[in-house]
Write a structure and sequence with these properties.
- The complex is a heterodimer of chains A (80) and B (103).
- Chain A has 80 residues and is α+β, with helices and mostly antiparallel strands.
- Chain A is 41% helix and 28% strand.
- Chain A has four helices and three strands.
- Chain A is globular and about 35 Å long.
- The termini of chain A are far apart.
- Chain B starts with a helix and ends with a helix.
- In chain B, strands 2-1-3-4 form a four-stranded mixed β-sheet.
- Chain B contains five helices and four strands.
- Chain B has one domain (3-102): Glutaredoxin.
- The chains are: A alpha+beta (80), B alpha+beta (103).
- The A-B interface holds A 42-43, 46-47, 50, 57-58, 63-67 and B 33, 64, 68-71, 81-87, 90-91.
């Protein structure tokens, strides 16, 4: 599993989203910035991403660590 | 999901206030993410129950479906699904987890 595949799948499935991702083929860490996160809790944001990845999450991706921000949050310097 | 698994999970999250579905046990977590949540719970100094999903394939697939969440660990507080490792870390850092447990 390539990082670029996960990045594209998330970006293609959720409009207005940009993903930065690193990983070793099974474990990944992603910073996801999306307009669609506006008004959602962290739990809801993670569910949106999981649902974008669908069965890949069950089968191919062992672990995906996520930080999720709206564009406004990311500009406020809340990126860690 | 098998009815008996659903009942098992419902019973598990009703019986104890804080419940962690994890890989391994609290003394020997079998995955770094499960270990991290155990560390967070231990630091909060609250009683909690754990269930090892590695020893029960039905529970492993059942809890994912029950919570509509594809990964383990999964934390429940007062019958409510709180989240996985990332969310536990975030809520531990911003104090929300401690607040939730004090209510």
């Amino acid at each position: 599993m390539k990082e670029s595949y996960i990045k594209e799948k998330i970006e293609d499935s959720i409009p207005g989203t940009s993903v930065k991702i690193t990983g070793d083929g099974v474990h990944f860490e992603a910073v996801i910035i999306s307009e669609s996160f506006e008004g959602l809790s962290t739990l809801e944001r993670h569910k949106v991403v999981y649902s974008a990845l669908g069965d890949d999450m069950k089968e191919k991706i062992h672990a995906l660590s996520m930080k999720t921000y709206t564009p406004t949050e990311s500009m406020k310097g809340e990126l860690k | 999901m098998k009815e008996e698994i659903k009942e098992f999970i419902e019973n598990a999250i009703s019986k104890d206030l804080v419940v962690l579905f994890m890989k391994g046990s609290r003394d020997m977590p079998m995955c770094g993410f499960s270990a991290k949540v155990i560390e967070i719970l231990n630091n909060l100094n609250v009683p909690y129950q754990t269930y090892d999903i590695l020893s029960d394939e039905d529970l492993r697939s059942g809890i994912k479906e029950f919570s509509n969440w594809p990964t383990i660990p999964q934390l429940y507080i007062n019958k409510e699904f709180v989240g996985g490792c990332d969310i536990c870390i975030e809520m531990s850092e911003n104090g929300e987890l401690a607040k939730k447990l004090n209510n």
